[in-house]
User: Fold Magnesium/cobalt efflux protein from Paramylibacter kogurei.
Amino acid sequence: MGDTTDGSSSAAQRAQTQVEQKKGGFLKRLFAPSETTEIVQHHTHEHITIMPAGGLGNLRNLRVDDVAIPRPDIVAVGNDIDLDGLVDVFRDSGYSRVPVYNETLDEPLGMIHLKDVALKHGFNGKTRQFNVEKMMRPLLFAPPSMPIGVLLQKMQTDRLHMALVIDEYGGVDGLVTIEDLVEQVVGEIADEHDAKEDEPWVEEKTGVYLVQARADLEDFEKVLGVDLLNDTEDEDIDTMGGLVFMLSGRVPTRGEVISHPSGYEFEIVEADPRSIKKLRVFKNSKSPAQG
Assistant:
């Protein structure tokens, strides 16, 4: 792994120091204030934080922990995994890269790329003994407080597309890919492998809806036959995600269930630290079983 694995915290600190020492040039132009910046409010129980909604300003205003995939959501494999198990992980997760660890995620060794597995054990047949460590590529390590612009430049310089977020005690807090960082500037990137989500909601079964956070609130109210904003005074909310955000006063985490005075429940199906992506709407007190 070289200098990317000998001490997670120190490696992250060195990465940040190396980039910050480069004055002017690329970073100076990149971080120059833009003339127009769209601002959105992020409410918490303590205060209201004003943050840019997109553009180059996010590279200096957002930290790694603002965009990282939280530890419980990280898909990773142990260094003792066999080929069939690894293929199953790639197939089930849909990812092309996953971290590799020794015993626990707090002992990361590197990452494995689907392309390397396919080239050595797929297209050419299973002619070689499988060893995940021999195919590993290095990882970057970053502290939670590192600006995402700094990490992005480090990824470009080292030609590495994945970083683990390391806390002050050397434990793994989250994971960031280069795509996560770029999306903070240009918006969500969908490739040919991403599932199409043209429909704002789908009725999974009677009375249970899987809803995109961007779904129009008024249109979905007509489906339910309920005025979901009846008890609020905020007329600026026009999406389902905005409604749930208003009810909770923050960005809820995946799996959390937010109750509405009408009796409907909003289960968070997909979310990142900054926004809600997808939710399940139903009128029971408990999340319905999938079937």
Remarks:
- The longest strand covers residues 104-113.
- Residues 8-20 form the longest helix (13 residues).
- The chain is about 30% helix and 25% strand.
